[in-house]
Design brief:
Blueprint lengths: L5 E10 L2 E11 L3 E6 L5 H8 L7 E6 L8 H7 E4 L12 H7 L8 H14 L15 H13 L5 E5 L7 H13 L4 E5 L3 H5 L3 E6 L2 E6 L1 H13 L1
Parallel strand pairs: 3-7, 3-8, 5-6, 6-7
Antiparallel strand pairs: 1-2, 1-4, 8-9
Helix pairs in contact: 3-5
The chain binds adenosine-5'-triphosphate.
Amino acid sequence: MSATGIHLDAVGVRLGDVDVLRDVSLDLDARTVAVIGENGSGKSTFARLIGGLIARTSGELSILGIDPTRRAAELRRRIAVVFSNPDAQIIMPTVAEDVAFSLRADRLRPAELEERVATAMERFGLTGLAERPSHDLSGGQKQLLALCGAFVRGPELVIADEPTAYLDARNARRVADHLFEDVSHRLVLVTHDLGLAARCEQAVLFAGGRMVSVGEPDAIIANYEARLRC
Ligand SMILES: Nc1ncnc2c1ncn2[C@@H]1O[C@H](COP(=O)(O)OP(=O)(O)OP(=O)(O)O)[C@@H](O)[C@H]1O
């Protein structure tokens, strides 16, 4: 298995008494990958699985050459996972403190920490909100804060589950451009926005907890749209 991509071999995930993912075999080696499918098809579960947040029940799995169940701490250092519910990811009382919290493991000098935080906040349009209580932000502002906290660490792989769900058109464009134009990271993007999916280099379609097709986004999107018409 390659040490750079995402590889699954006959992976299953059972949560409670439900087989949420079944027999998923996949090789995702493109820099940007879209994950699409109907509500309840297993996309978020797949995102949580490759983000090391839930364990597989069966099969083999490798993310950037790492088995998440064996080297979870290393995986957490190298990847960032961003969800559509930003509340779960906001921890510190103010915006600036929350962004800085993401860098706690790096033990930076105060001046460097301040600069990294300021640069990241500027990139996500949060500069004017630095001292605001994080939990008083709007849904969209919280989403930007969660993204900022994810990116400030410089992850090798970003797993983003509907990252533009709460954003207005301008911020959605800003975030999408950031996800696609910053080539320093790989991206796995779970999305119902087929326009965003089309911007990826590879796409994977889930249905009923199974991976049904993987390949060029245009072909995978056409397959999905044909299924939706049935
Ligand atoms: N903890 C759990 N226990 C039992 N079933 C679960 C659990 N988490 C998810 N499921 C079920 O697994 C299925 C897939 O859920 P998942 O959230 O992965 O879908 P999704 O494709 O991301 O959906 P959506 O587009 O609506 O966000 C759903 O039927 C869901 O009810």
